[in-house]
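Predict the assembly for these six chains.
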Amino acid sequence: MEFHAQKAIFLQIADLLTDGIMEEKWKVDERIPSVREFATSLEVNPNTVMRAYSYLQDQEIIANKRGIGFFVSPNANHKIIAIKREEFIKLEVPRISKMMKLLDLSFDELKKLISDIE
Amino acid sequence: MEFHAQKAIFLQIADLLTDGIMEEKWKVDERIPSVREFATSLEVNPNTVMRAYSYLQDQEIIANKRGIGFFVSPNANHKIIAIKREEFIKLEVPRISKMMKLLDLSFDELKKLISDIE
Amino acid sequence: MEFHAQKAIFLQIADLLTDGIMEEKWKVDERIPSVREFATSLEVNPNTVMRAYSYLQDQEIIANKRGIGFFVSPNANHKIIAIKREEFIKLEVPRISKMMKLLDLSFDELKKLISDIE
Amino acid sequence: MEFHAQKAIFLQIADLLTDGIMEEKWKVDERIPSVREFATSLEVNPNTVMRAYSYLQDQEIIANKRGIGFFVSPNANHKIIAIKREEFIKLEVPRISKMMKLLDLSFDELKKLISDIE
DNA sequence: GTGGTCTAGACCACC
DNA sequence: GTGGTCTAGACCACA
């Protein structure tokens, strides 16, 4: 798999997982791929996958059962949305507001820009 | 001055300059502060300021007159807007679209979020 | 049954057994559950239960009669207390002392903290 | 420097730092050793030191200034005490209570044990 | 110089 | 088999 350079690979892997969980590719209480397994399928070092898993474990989106593997936590979906929503409001919304002023964009124009991308 | 850790300092300084130019704090053909001057006032390494200046010079927003200093280029405002607009549409608009889907946000809700910040 | 992730499961199972022995759930010379039986009731790998049994066997708290099962050893209670006491004094007491200094806790405050949990 | 095997080295390094901060070896707003510097002095891999620093950064005990190094955060001392206190109450106090019951220790006996260690 | 990330490969305890 | 930690060494962007 290919990763883009703008963002750390371990974060892109974390996104892969959260996206998968949102799409119910992995459901609550289900086991996600083992570190090594996922690492070889992504053609990435196991440490890098491990880092993504630890990152999500800290956010209580996945949890580890000793010697067995990582599992999707109950309420993972809600946690993912809550975290992403908070990030969006804290980091992106102010930026959007600033850019609208700078570019002299009305909300309708912004709406059009967003609708235009498929 | 304090900078946030998420973004390179030289980019934050560049934003400081473009914002100042847009607000006509520095007008076209006017001289902006010298590298050394600006560096001490920002409590930052002169190299870092220099990097911001080079960055804006590449975008033809400012220009260097050897031995004298950096000056705001003609049409700097239009260039700033053009560049920021392109970046906004290419990088941010798709991200906004994605987040709206993920967070299940309507345009009205987005509008409210944006209006809510002052 | 649920285990916490901080401690090895086989040690948690060993604690389950010593607690049971202290509470006379299993008395001296009585047979404790078979490895397989216990494993299925705990929803755990039999190897893990076996490891807990071996661990207690090494401490002479339980003993194996080949082909029959594991039995609580004579004097198991005294041994359990002796071992736990030694561990407590060697490992935990110094730590408590250190934390009291760090957190600036008096004995009375410690006493209160301990009393507060039920 | 020697580390004991019971606890991850990166956590022992984190303890080294929090202890140092509490003892004002490094004061608020002061720079702590660079990752590489500390790694060589401890005879440990830089990654391991980095992990300890990241760990403390997550807890907002230290903070990074880009390209310069890590600095002790304001209020680091309070944060350290708050975190350690919470851990103590959540993990150790219940255990102490349990051991007192099991070993049939009175509080005065516990007090004596603690006082006995120099 | 600084931190941040990644790879390759190893060892360990645990299940 | 699983994760968890560590080493050695590399490359990068940034100050």
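The interface with chain D takes residues 58 of chain A (CB under 8 Å). Chain A has two domains: 9-74, 77-116.
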